[in-house]
UniProtKB/TrEMBL annotation:
Its EC number is 3.6.4.13. This is DEAD-box ATP-dependent RNA helicase CshA. Residues 12-40 form the DEAD-box RNA helicase Q domain. GO terms for cellular component: cytosol. The keyword ATP-binding applies. Belongs to the DEAD box helicase family.
Length: 415
């Protein structure tokens, strides 16, 4: 985003975006003061009924950006599905539903959340009550359509949230099946952190002359995040993680693994050594995932081990460190992972560490090209994870977020 646009967005007010008085009153009661850049750019276009593609990083206020124009145009006096919001995960679906209820406290709003891992009957009952807004994952939405519980002929709005992630995890056939059943005369909003070719093809096929609103950065912001890599022998990763946690003493950290099995393995190891540790991934029962996320947001869990799919739904302001235990398979996943950190107060910097095996140098280079930033090497004190043949310039020290007393927790003391 240009400096000129940033200054413009700082001056923009919600009452300049074409929102009605009732919506503005709800915003004020919900504690919203000024629109974020994606809200300032997308809302004025979306309230006109135009199809829109909004590209912006996770955690930038996209939910309100698409919810407010939708809420302004929904008729709460009329029962039946008027808006369908598709999201990649149960957690994100429920997060979106919570935000919508916050933005529209009107008791006549009926909202159904259709996600897997939860009983079908309560969801079916929500639909029978005439839910005007339906939020859900593509698989469960298809299930309710096939059972005859959800009729799409009354839809006016379709919103695809985190479209890139939905396609990454294999929802494209379900999404296309749903879109083909929707009325041709509708407004479609597509929100995505990245726009790879599959997302562009989806938009071209199912949207009508969409307005493109691109607030993605050409480079990942490095002002609020110190980024490092650590070359490590694969069989020393667990020891490296142990030593790194002891040295850094993070306030809250997410450790990302590529696989569910890897997340469970680390959880078993570190739960024996530390308090306030948990893992979260798609194979956990929904009730347990809900409990883990709740405790993490409350600060009761300080070390969360997560897979990429789950990482997208985590928005917690106190995360000080991200540790990529496994280097991400896709460059954009690196962007999403480190986007979880760096939301601390202005005088504190977050840190992101990526463990890189000796044969993963090309993947590290691809990430550096993606973010247009050279990632420096970091070495843990008195521990040799691996001795590279041609070491890069080494950063021996990093700003320790544990230097201030209130960030230090003895649970991350000696093992």
């Amino acid at each position: 985003m240009t400096e000129e646009k940033k200054k413009k967005n700082l001056k923009t007010r919600f009452d300049q975006l074409g929102l009605n008085e009732e919506i503005l009153k709800n915003l004020s009661q919900a504690g919203y003061e000024t629109p974020s850049p994606i809200q300032a750019e997308l809302i004025p276009v979306a309230v006109t009924g135009q199809d829109c593609i909004g590209q912006a990083r996770t955690g930038t206020g996209k939910t309100a950006a698409f919810s407010l124009p939708m809420l302004q145009q929904i008729d709460l006096r009329r029962p039946g599905a008027q808006a369908l919001i598709l999201a990649p995960t149960r957690e994100l679906s429920e997060q979106v539903a919570t935000e919508i209820r916050k933005l529209c406290p009107d008791k006549s709003l009926n909202l159904a959340v259709l996600v897997g891992g939860k009983p079908l009957r309560p969801q079916e009952n929500q639909l029978k009550k005439g839910a005007q807004i339906v939020v859900g994952t593509p698989g469960r939405v298809i299930d309710h359509i096939n059972r005859g519980n959800l009729k799409l002929n009354t839809l006016n709005f379709v919103i695809l949230d985190e479209a890139d992630r939905m396609l990454d995890i294999g929802f494209r056939p379900d999404i296309e099946k749903i879109l083909r059943k929707c009325p041709e005369k509708r407004q479609t909003l597509l929100l995505s952190a990245t726009l790879p070719p599959p997302v562009e093809r989806l938009a071209k096929r199912y949207m009508q002359d969409p307005v493109m609103i691109d607030l993605s950065e050409d480079r990942v912001s490095v002002e609020s995040i110190d980024q490092y890599y650590i070359t490590v022998d694969p069989n020393r990763k667990v020891k490296l993680l142990t030593r790194l946690l002891f040295q850094e003493r993070p306030k809250q950290t997410i450790v990302f693994t590529r696989t569910k099995r890897g997340a469970d393995k680390l959880d078993r190891i570190f739960s024996k050594k530390l308090k306030a540790v948990a893992a979260i991934h798609g194979d956990l029962p929904q009730s347990k995932r809900d409990r883990v996320l709740k405790k993490f947001r409350e600060g009761k869990i300080r070390l969360l081990i997560a897979t990429d799919v789950m990482g997208r739904g985590i928005d917690v302001s106190g995360i000080s460190h991200i540790i990529n235990y496994d280097i991400p398979e896709f460059n954009d996943d690196y962007v999403h992972r480190i986007g979880r950190v760096g939301r601390l107060s202005s005088d504190q910097k977050g840190a992101a560490f990526t463990f890189v095996a000796p044969d993963e140098g090309d993947q590290l280079t691809n990430i550096e090209n993606r973010i247009n930033h050279m990632i420096s090497e970091f070495r843990v004190d008195d521990f040799e994870a691996y001795k590279p043949k041609q070491p890069r310039k080494t950063v021996e020290k990093v700003t320790h977020l544990g230097n201030t007393g209130h960030l230090i927790n003895p649970d991350f003391g000696e093992f």
